[in-house]
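Hey, weird one. I pasted the Gustatory receptor sequence into the form twice and got a warning about non-standard characters only the second time. First submission, copied straight from the form history:
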Amino acid sequence: MWCPNDVSDIVLAFCKVWTYFGLPIYKLKTVNETKKIIQHQKYYICVLNLVIFGSVLLLYFVFLPVENNLASYVSFYEYFVNYFQTIVIIIYAHVKKKEFEDIFNELISIEGNIHYFSGRKLIYDKLGKELVRYVVQQTIVSILLFVFDIYSNIRSETELVFIIGYYFGYWANFHFGFFLLFLPKIVLKLYCDFINAIKHQNAKNTIKVYTKLHSLSVSVVKTLQVFILLRTFSTFSITALDIFFGISLLTTHHFSQFLTICLIFMNVSWLINVLFNEFLMLYYFEKILEQKQLIGELISENNRFCNRKELILIYLKFGHEPPFMVCGLFPLNCTLIFSMIAGVATQIIYLFQFIQKKDLENYLY
């Protein structure tokens, strides 16, 4: 199994994948024996990717016109949101290409500082195995969903074309979901390694390294907040519509027992999988903030090298840092997942209240 030697190996793994999907391209440059930097490379493959995704979206409008029924409206909305998300990710990633370069280099720099601080090499074997397991798991789930959709929904060549086109757009931004999850995971690991290294250090040395580490976490949130907002919106809207359509389908049509069980199982599995992914990302960001409090306690235990004025400034800094926010709309912590679940449930109730069952039977297909 893949075992990265340092944080640059993990970053480059994502960058290699980005090469094929139109996102910014980065290369590792070795300055000397102890210093490595990641630099952005100018390539214009993103134009080709944008043309491909835009053409696929345009072909849908031309050859798969929206009909006056619920299934057609839901399909059109999910298809559009899927490709819109992919195109925005590519464009906005290029807008933020310098910020990504700075974040990658800060990760490498801080890793070196913590290595020097602790006097031991940081281990990334466990993180590499977690990444591989997660990618394999998500890939298997998406392939099973693709096969099930083809098996249960194909009634014409038009529907086959739609499903292939939909999953093409879905897999095109598949990798970026891994990046949104594992970038805060890497930052969290640096926090944990830093905490393990500062138990026998004085407060002045600790605060110098911690300031850089916390500045990195703030930069990560500022750079990713638009991507997180886009992902949250698409997950919320598609989840609500999928559940509503699935329940409507089961209540108005008679399927075989096997197909009914499969339909329920795949929809519930997909829902759990999506919400679990969101929860993990939010959990990592929340844990990063918790490390701040723990570092503050460790500094207070090793304050013999600071005078009273310096200690007061340190306590003010650790105690009054605002929580991470997504575009100023909502906090980036685990409470968001519960708000999403409540919002999805409320939206589904609204949809059923405004549509009568008799109308639903005539309007579904």
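That's the output from the first submission. The warning seems to come from a hidden character in my clipboard, not from the data itself. The chain is about 75% helix and 5% strand.
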